Amino acid sequence: HTLSYVPVKVATPQLILPKNSTGSDLMIPVDKILSPVSAIIQLIKENNHRPYVLVNEKVVDEFDQFDQSDPDIVVVGDAEKQFTYESMNSTFKLLVGGERKFYCLGRSKYYLSSGELKLEVGCFIAGLEYSSQVQAEVVGKPSSMFFNQAAKMIGLSPGDVVMIGDDVDSDVGGAMNVRCSGHSCKDGKYRSKDANHPTVKPTLIAD
Question: Are strands 110-113 and 116-119 parallel, antiparallel or unpaired?
Answer without folding.
Answer: antiparallel
